[in-house]
Automatic annotation (TrEMBL):
Name the record gives this protein: DUF402 domain-containing protein
InterPro entries (alphabetical): DUF402, FomD-like_sf, Ntdp-like
Native organism: Paractinoplanes atraurantiacus
PANTHER family named among the record's database cross-references: PTHR39159, UPF0374 PROTEIN YGAC (PTHR39159:SF1)
Domain of life of the source: Bacteria
Amino acid sequence: MDAVDLVLRKFDGRPHRQVTARLLGEDEFGTWLSTPRGTVVTYHYGRRPTGVTRVDAVRLIPAEGWWMAMFLAAPDRRELYCDIITPARWTGPAEITVIDLDIDLVRYRQGKRVEVEDEDEFEQHRREMGYPPEIVAGALAGAASLHEALELDREPFAAHYRKWLGAPT
């Protein structure tokens, strides 16, 4: 399986986070990447420059859409973590780049509770970095439709991802 660099940047172009994943394949929902437990993640913010993933996970990069999802294996209390982003684009033969637009949605295993995080950060960066109206509209519409899909347990968020989470890496 091929290595793919997943690069997250902020709207002003500065690096945010990067992880090298394994390409699992594609289906009607998008491109599936694996980040097994212990995968190194590079952070361009905060105190620690690198970390490692604590559980196995698969990431879904939709062909179109203003989000990407990370499905986490047990025992993580989160079932999935989604970033609101600009639509992903291949920026090299083995590199996918997205612009992280701050808003995150998390669904917890217990009770399938969905929480929206960092809306305040979105508002702050919207002003500081001058997000254009089409970026704001795309991010907010993406967050709303994703929230509904998570609440209603629509695929690929219901059970489809389990096929990929169990795939060999």
